[in-house]
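User: For my dataset I need records formatted as: sequence, then structure tokens, nothing else. Please produce one.
Assistant:
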Amino acid sequence: METIRHGTGLRVAVIGVGAMGRAHCQTMREQVGEMELAAVVDAHAATADETGRQFGVPAFTSAEAMLAAGVADASLIATPHPLHLPVVEACLEAGLHVLCEKPMAETVSSADRMLAAARRAGRTLGIMFQRRFEPVFEAALDFVAAGRLGETVRTLLVLPDFRTQCYYDANVWRATWRGEGGGVLINQAPHLIDLFTLLGGLPQSVIGHTTTSPLHDIEVEDQAEALLRYANGAVGYLYASTIESKHHEMLEIIGTRGSLTYRHGRLECVVYDEDLRASSAADGDVWRRPAIHDVTPACEAIPNNRLQGRLMTNFARHLLFGEPLRCDAESARMPLELANAITLSSHLNAPVQLPVDRAAYDALLAARRQTSRPRKQVGTVLRVPDPRLV
């Protein structure tokens, strides 16, 4: 891939300037010197025009019009995720590099098509998983990359992220099969599932269960759990919900050489003085146990509203200077693969192997959408992003 060189940086068009898209425009202006906001696009003309005036850039009502104008080197896509696929494909085919909001799509088959389009076009496709840039998770990824975990023995992910009924009621498409293509697994959980799969890999099979609690009047799941089996015999458990406080968020990977635990925003890394397999096979000491050494690195605290800026900077520097890309779409497909597998397993009431059967999941989603109904809007449409993020 040839690097791009412009005196003003990477020219970026933001497509979809609702709550999150407009926040991305602001982040780009305030935090990312390597990017130049070149245009905004929104299907709602008033929203596009207002945002264009706010940031002093051209406004378009379609991606096609923006592409025809030739104003950008790359696009940042912040439309609702069921619309990601056609916009991503159009931008890549027009020769633009693409940075797309999470999740990539509602189905892993759509993610496959996006990756194929990027390969055909010879362009970069990145995904907005900014929690990869939290110092604690940077340290955790370094710990795993250095081989200090050894062979995986067990994994655990608990990721509650509370939502009110009025949150769901604020948009007619929210928490519907037709509008979102799923619930907590697609919308609220992907960031930490992304890190979970980066650190522990994808399982070989899952037994999933999804349900909707009495706390919410929605048609998709607000609770999901899964038993995980890995190719090497390791086991795992995942639980996600929007009915508990985020305070209980926890990620754990246990290996034969060490372990890492993330809880309450803090990371703990430990190593053993010998591999558990060697300890188990040793003769002569029935009570033999390896010594444990805490090797947790010091991690600086970075405000959440700086993480997206760090990710955008990496994306721009990858294209401008060849810096390694840390938000690549290939790895970002994994959390969607796992989410689709859990949902399919729940609806089939049977174990599901990974990679998930694309045709089976697409058929399930199509059937759910046949009976899906828009929500009755209550109050004002939600036009502001989660305050924890911006």
